[in-house]
Amino acid sequence: MKGSLNYRIKEIKDSRGTILITYSYGRGTEVVIATGKKINQVSSWNKEKQRVRNIAIENNSSIINQWLNNKLSEVQQQLTQLQFSNENFTNQEVKSLIKKVLGRATKKDIAIATDTNEIKNLKWCYDWYIKYYTKNPTPSTKHPLANSTLRSLKTCKKKFLEYCKETGDVDFKDINMDFYEKFVEWLQAQNYSNNYIGNHIKNLKAVMNYALSRGYHNNIDFKKREFAKPTEKVAKIFLKETELQSIFNLQLPKGLSHSRDLFLIGAYTGLRVSDFNNLTKENIIDIDGSKFIQLAQKKTKEIITIPCNSKVIRIFEKYDGNPPSPKLDQHINRDLKIIGAKAKIKEKVPVTKTLGGKEVTKPYFKYDLITTHTARRSFCTNAYKAGIPTFDIMAISGHKTEKVFYSYIRATNVDKAKKIAEHSFFK
């Protein structure tokens, strides 16, 4: 709970005193409310301990002090919940909430406090988490949630509510290994992949974790090692330089051409779709007669400068020196399958997935697997094979360790061996 919550005494007639509760939570922002408890002498109040002295003239001191202890604890808890649910709470909401706890609320106070202090269950937290971190930085990333993460959370919340509708309400206390097994089994019955199911578990754990940190529950079963998100490696393709050239050479109608141009900017710069799909003319700069793209990455906020090759420059020239305008990710992904087929990228790629708890292998045409993320993976892999130092590629891609980088690119052991063989040590 932010702010300072205290008791103090106010003198009334005949040197008697009435006990007030005060809540200060900002410069010049203080709420003062009478508790309804009085003492016989102002001098009986212990200012340091903020309690009534245990002396003869105050024969009810122990009862009053116990009441003050209980109410202080309850008010602290309610204020914590208020701050968690609404960072822009008002003085009136604070007053109504405290008066309700003290048993001194009017009908209006009760209505305001009830609305303000609704029950914080798991469903409520899912909604709050999505709404709050859409605009505010998360404690882990220090940035608001990305659009892709928000879409994932909304999908997971929808499925969780479907599960609750079929099986009965699920709250914080119910998130244990028994729930985990039943929920995973329920998702498997709908023929979902392990990675899709794992995404549901990951998001549910994130919501549970933040609710735990706010004191809404004390259930830590979800932190057990066994309560893990199912995961598996799936085929992640990249496009070779020759395949990118085939896409570049295509004559396409306006809509497909627009998607192709955005994709190729990503494939030749390594930018994430959130960046290459939101470039402006201000991001294109000239340094010593050469064109560069310079921007603060949306995900990491780090400023990067990337040289433009001749193909990227030609794409900009098509748009009068501007980048292509943004386009919905799902529309680009839809178009990329058509573009890949037209470019005859028809290699068969076996894809193995666990669907409904069973491992299934199915061949796909490579063009059916092309997405906006293929652009970034293609850049990293092709740059690595071309001999660009790994450190320089990682500076653009944002990978923090070489181990993660090598698991990301599509380079075989032979590719890596060839690259090592170029070192002077082996000459």
Could you describe the 3D structure shown?
- The chain has 427 residues and is of the alpha+beta class.
- The protein folds into 3 domains: 4-116, no CATH class; 122-223, DNA polymerase, domain 1, CATH 1.10.150.130; 241-426, hpI Integrase, Chain A (Orthogonal Bundle).
- Helices cover 48% and strands 15% of the residues.
- The chain is built from 16 helices and 10 strands.
- The strands form 4 sheets. Strands 1-2-3 form a 3-stranded antiparallel beta sheet, covered by helices on one side.
- Helix 9 (254-269) crosses helix 13 and helix 13 packs antiparallel against helix 14 (390-397).
- The longest helix is centred in the N-terminal third of the chain and has 25 residues, at 61-85.
- It is elongated and about 95 Å long.
- 26% of the residues are buried.
- This is Integrase.
- Keywords: DNA integration, DNA recombination, DNA-binding.
Structural topology:
Layout: E1 4-11, E2 17-26, E3 29-39, E4 45-46, E5 51-52, H1 61-85, H2 91-102, H3 107-116, H4 122-135, H5 147-167, H6 177-188, H7 194-213, H8 241-249, H9 254-269, H10 273-276, E6 284-287, E7 290-296, E8 303-307, H11 310-318, H12 329-342, E9 348-355, E10 358-365, H13 372-385, H14 390-397, H15 402-408, H16 413-421
Helix pairs in contact: 1-2, 2-3, 4-5, 4-7, 5-7, 9-12, 9-13, 13-14
Q: Would you kindly provide a brief summary of this structure?
A:
48% of the residues lie in helices and 15% in strands. By secondary structure, the chain is α+β, with helices and mostly antiparallel strands.
